[in-house]
Each structure stands twice: as structure tokens, then as C-alpha cells.
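re: ur question from yesterday

yeah so i grabbed the chain u mentioned. its 265 aa long if i counted rite. heres the sequnce exactly as i have it in my notes:
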Amino acid sequence: MEGEAAKQELAPSAGLPVGPVYDTGADTTIAATTHMIIKSAEIRLRVENTDTAIDRVTQVVGDAGGYIISSRVWYQAHYDGENYKYATITIGVPVQQFERALNRLRGIAVKVLDESAAGEDVTDQYVDLQSQLTNLEATRERIKSFLDDAKTVDEAMRINAELSEIERQIEEIKGRMNYLQDRSSYSTITITLEPELPEILPTPTPEPKPWSPGETFEDATKTVTRAYQGIVELLIWFFIVLVPVLVPPIFLVWLLWKLITRKPK
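ran it thru and got these C-alpha cells back, copy pasting raw so excuse formatting
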């Protein structure tokens, strides 16, 4: 009943959403604000230059008052043998700057290849934790009063053990509430940067040449003509160059051979 009463007390009125904001000190304060939404997004961008894009992402994070959660850079070889730089960066930005940061990230890209966004409403979880925290704190105060009335050492030790367990649960709930508040205050965006690759020109497919008997006859005629021309040119070189050069030495060799082999009378 106490939990339901706490939810009704924090429920939206007149169409206005509420969400608890608290101080993790001794006293817990709840104030009306917007719903606690954990927002996240993933965006894949094709960029002209990866290094320039990384610098611009860093600038977007700084202007939004956010921070870089993680980053990874790697190189990948492609068909032309070159290594191209890729990067994945996860950033956290205030929830009020979520949409504005996404718009600025889109402006970095030559083309947005993929984009997805999601939101999780954790208001009910937070309200439930707030109710549990209230109940546990009330239980702690009652146990402390029992401790004052303890008559024996064993009784005091059992009460102290129960008090320690209650305080442990209180700290766990406060830690969970802190986590939900921090996650709803800052949204996460994962950006994947891919370089723009050179365009692959398609190899033209050769078209089959139609059969043409006339062209075949013409090619055959040209081949025969070139063959006869080659024979005639060879004969010209033989009689104009080779015969005058080779005949005199051959004649002298033959004449000497005759003189040497001549029989005496």
C-alpha cells in the first residue's frame, strides 16, 4: 500500500509527465520533472575522410557537453590494394542534446548508410525503487529502536545483523537509482565511420562481331598479297645484296681449290 501511495503521489497530473530526482544523502528528495528515458542510437556514416570526420565528431561531443565513452580505429585493404581507415566511436551526450547531436552527425557524412534509435522508459522502475527505499529506511529506524531496547548481548548482535542487512539493501537501491538517473541524463550514440571508396568502373562486355564473308575475303586477299610481297622483297635482297657480296669470295675459293687439286701432266 505504501508503494502504491508513492506511485500515486508521483503520477502525472493534468497531462504533465513526472520523473523523480533525488539526493543520495541522508534525506531523499523527489521533484516533478520529465519521464526518465534512457535513449541510445547507432548511426553508420560514409565519410570523405575518416580523420577529418573523427575531428568533427569530437567537436560535436565537446559542443554538446558530452564525453567519449570508447573508440576504435582499424585499417582494411580493398580491391585497389590501398588500406582505408575505419573508426567506431561511442559517445555520451546530455539527453537534451540527443536529437541535435544526431542532426550534426548526419551533416558529417557523404551518405547516412544506417541509423537506429531506441528509448527505454525507466520511470516506473525508479518509482518502485523509491518506494522500496522509503520502506527500508522506515524499517531501519524501527530496528534501531529495537536495538535500544535489547536486553542481552545476543539479542543486540542479532538486531545489528538485521540492521546491517537492511543498510546493505538500502545502498544497493541507492546505487541502482543513481545508475538509472545517470543513464537517463546522458544518452549514448555509437558512430561508425566508413571511408568513401573509389568507384569501380565496370569492364565493358565485348559484343560478338557478326559474320561477314566480304570482310573475310578481303582479309584473305590482303594476307596473300602481303605474302607475295614478302617473297618478292626477299628475292630483291638476295640478288641485290647477297649475290654481289657472296659470289666473288665463292669464286676465289673455287679457283684456289682447282689450282691445288690440279694433276701434273
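noticed a couple things. The radius of gyration is 47 Å. also Residues 213-261 form the longest helix (49 residues).
anyway ttyl
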